[in-house]
Amino acid sequence: MAQRDVPEASAVAAAPRKRSHESPAASSAGNDNSSSNGSSYSSTSDRDTSTARQRRKDRRRRQNNSSSHSHHHQHKRPNVNGRGSSAAAPSDLNGSSRAASGNANGAAFQQRRDSLGKAARDPRDQAPVRRRAVVAGQGQRVRPPSPVIDDDGLSRPGRGTRQRRLEDEPEAEQRLERMRGAVRTLLECVGEDPDREGLLDTPSRYAKALLFLTGGYQVNVEDLVNNALFHEGHNEMVIVKDIEIHSLCEHHLVPFTGKMHIGYIPSDTVIGLSKLPRIAEMYARRLQIQERLTKEVAHAIMEILKPQGVAVVMESSHLCMVMRGVQQRSSSTITSCVLGCFERKSKTRNEFLSLVGINRS
């Protein structure tokens, strides 16, 4: 019994060696016979291979993301010139430039929006702030002072303005006599004889003329306007142009003459048209410079009328430049002052300049 089992065992042991020498057809047949047993193994192997491949892809993706992130946060290194420079990957340059452009556009948009929001709250369009408390007497009205109109209605009063305005007739005659003596001294100092026929009354004439030419110091704005304000609901531009101006240069006491153009956009309230030239004359009848004269007229109208905006342009010729100094006989000087909507809106300002003939294009 044992002897018969030995050949069977050796035959079983030799079986694999015989399969290695079988033909391809036999081997294929053997594989077909065993496919049912190995199908589950092949499917599991394919899934493992696919999972490993996906893991490798995920690992590479994480590495790429980590590398890109490190480029964005790379520290600056000093270059050969000693200044800091940041190294960025070439692939990040386009993205960085797009981000910078987006930030710049966003900042510009925010700035424009802020400027539009601030325009409506321009403090220069508000009523002047009261500089000090004014206590009104019985039957008197309190009005806020301003840089050009004081609390008693006088415009830019000087040290002796109120004294001259309140003096009686004897005091006025004493003032005039002092002025005559000063003019007589000037004539003597230039080598003239103030007692000759042509100059005999010159000191008195000149003193009276100078008081007339500086009479604007004594004008009360409220008396000048005389309540000529009318609520007409008008909110379009109003212009009075070619107002003749004659004033004295405060540097040399010689005249400068020219024309002034005044425009404003009402806030439903208009002023009598004749009051605009009167306001201009009030500030011209004093010792002036053209720049200040233009500004004072604009600010006075802004306070009296409370409009949306005021624009004043003046063009004049100065005898101190014509008769002496550089002696430029054909030169002229143009000054302007724009407030409120004329200052904020270039379209409104250009419309005014075009209507008064300054924009000659």
From TrEMBL:
<feature type="compositionally biased region" description="Low complexity">
    <location>
        <begin position="94"/>
        <end position="108"/>
    </location>
</feature>
<feature type="compositionally biased region" description="Low complexity">
    <location>
        <begin position="23"/>
        <end position="44"/>
    </location>
</feature>
<feature type="compositionally biased region" description="Basic and acidic residues">
    <location>
        <begin position="111"/>
        <end position="128"/>
    </location>
</feature>
<dbReference type="InterPro" id="IPR018234">
    <property type="entry name" value="GTP_CycHdrlase_I_CS"/>
</dbReference>
<keyword id="KW-0378">Hydrolase</keyword>
<dbReference type="Pfam" id="PF01227">
    <property type="entry name" value="GTP_cyclohydroI"/>
</dbReference>
<protein>
    <recommendedName>
        <fullName>GTP cyclohydrolase 1</fullName>
        <ecNumber>3.5.4.16</ecNumber>
    </recommendedName>
</protein>
<feature type="compositionally biased region" description="Basic and acidic residues">
    <location>
        <begin position="164"/>
        <end position="174"/>
    </location>
</feature>
<feature type="compositionally biased region" description="Basic residues">
    <location>
        <begin position="53"/>
        <end position="78"/>
    </location>
</feature>
<dbReference type="InterPro" id="IPR020602">
    <property type="entry name" value="GTP_CycHdrlase_I_dom"/>
</dbReference>
<keyword id="KW-0289">Folate biosynthesis</keyword>
<dbReference type="GO" id="GO:0046654">
    <property type="term" value="P:tetrahydrofolate biosynthetic process"/>
</dbReference>
<dbReference type="InterPro" id="IPR043134">
    <property type="entry name" value="GTP-CH-I_N"/>
</dbReference>
<comment type="similarity">
    <text>Belongs to the GTP cyclohydrolase I family.</text>
</comment>
<dbReference type="GO" id="GO:0008270">
    <property type="term" value="F:zinc ion binding"/>
</dbReference>
<dbReference type="GO" id="GO:0003934">
    <property type="term" value="F:GTP cyclohydrolase I activity"/>
</dbReference>
<dbReference type="InterPro" id="IPR043133">
    <property type="entry name" value="GTP-CH-I_C/QueF"/>
</dbReference>
<dbReference type="GO" id="GO:0005737">
    <property type="term" value="C:cytoplasm"/>
</dbReference>
<comment type="function">
    <text>GTP cyclohydrolase 1 is the first enzyme in the biosynthetic pathway leading to folic acid.</text>
</comment>
<dbReference type="GO" id="GO:0005525">
    <property type="term" value="F:GTP binding"/>
</dbReference>
<dbReference type="InterPro" id="IPR001474">
    <property type="entry name" value="GTP_CycHdrlase_I"/>
</dbReference>
<feature type="region of interest" description="Disordered">
    <location>
        <begin position="1"/>
        <end position="174"/>
    </location>
</feature>
<feature type="domain" description="GTP cyclohydrolase I">
    <location>
        <begin position="181"/>
        <end position="356"/>
    </location>
</feature>
<keyword id="KW-0547">Nucleotide-binding</keyword>
<dbReference type="GO" id="GO:0046656">
    <property type="term" value="P:folic acid biosynthetic process"/>
</dbReference>
<keyword id="KW-0021">Allosteric enzyme</keyword>
<comment type="pathway">
    <text>Cofactor biosynthesis; 7,8-dihydroneopterin triphosphate biosynthesis; 7,8-dihydroneopterin triphosphate from GTP: step 1/1.</text>
</comment>
<dbReference type="GO" id="GO:0006729">
    <property type="term" value="P:tetrahydrobiopterin biosynthetic process"/>
</dbReference>
<keyword id="KW-0342">GTP-binding</keyword>
